[in-house]
Amino acid sequence: MATSRAPLRFAEAVSATVSAARESGFFFDFDGTVAPIMNDPDAVLPVPGAVERLGALSELFARVAVVSARPAAFLRERFSAAPGVRLFGLYGLQTVVGGEIRNAGEAEPWAPVIRRLIADAARELPGKVLVEDKALMVALHYRAAPALRGVVERWSSAKAAELGLAEQLGRMVVELKPPVPGDKGTVVATEAADLTRAWYFGDDLSDARAFEALRTREEGDPAFIGVKVAVANSETGDDLARQADFAASGPADVPAMLDEIIRAFHDKRDSR
Ligand SMILES: O=P(O)(O)OC[C@H]1O[C@H](O[C@H]2O[C@H](CO)[C@@H](O)[C@H](O)[C@H]2O)[C@H](O)[C@@H](O)[C@@H]1O
């Protein structure tokens, strides 16, 4: 069994990555990581400079992807200026291939169940709960009324049991989704399978699965370096920070961090 590597300093992780750029990838969560948290989910845009930095990375390194719970169409709209960035929506149930959205076949039969659930939510939950319709999934937001957390979580658990759906908790949100295997960890494990270095940036509970995927790969493959970056926040950030190698103070900090990597890539190339 492989022993875990000694903790790397940031400069060492960057150096190991730019030295093997063609075998390196960068994976990003969206909300709370490269985009700010806001009350209205539809109004959210990436922080200034994020799309440009992800686009630049995609031209220098083997793989760059956004792995999010958002629908792929939402991501496609926001990352249209960075065509080299791969997009995985709804925890990997949707991808964008050649500009077209592809749904995981196993998830599609659940669309009528989700439609029924959305109608039930609109009728049965208090008006302050925002019901986000993602077609193959629904997100129940209580950010506008945090005291409703218990009401939302109990309603969600009962519906999940009744309809055979899976649940995912997040930042002032509960999601109900088809009980189809796969999460951010399986997306990252698959997408990083041919890489020897992979970075994951995340802020929320579902991002822990991606961190775990990098840890598992490191345990089985001593040549692999997984770099876990937690984006700090007072809601779900502490748990993730404990599992991370590095921290960013918030989404606005991420472009500057990526600049250090892009600069190191160019310095390395110029020194050859
Ligand atoms: O996987 P992610 O890209 O991080 O998506 C997770 C959820 O993000 C969105 O909700 C979160 O951001 C909202 C906008 O800032 C905020 O109002 C909400 O409280 C957060 O939970 C998105 O709306 C959800 O569908 C995603 O599941």
From TrEMBL:
InterPro entries: OTSB-like, Trehalose_PPase. The keyword Cytoplasm does not apply. It catalyses: alpha,alpha-trehalose 6-phosphate + H2O = alpha,alpha-trehalose + phosphate. Keywords: Hydrolase, Magnesium, Metal-binding. Pathway: Glycan biosynthesis; trehalose biosynthesis. Belongs to the trehalose phosphatase family. This is Trehalose 6-phosphate phosphatase. It comes from Nonomuraea guangzhouensis. The lineage of its organism: Bacteria, Bacillati, Actinomycetota, Actinomycetes, Streptosporangiales.
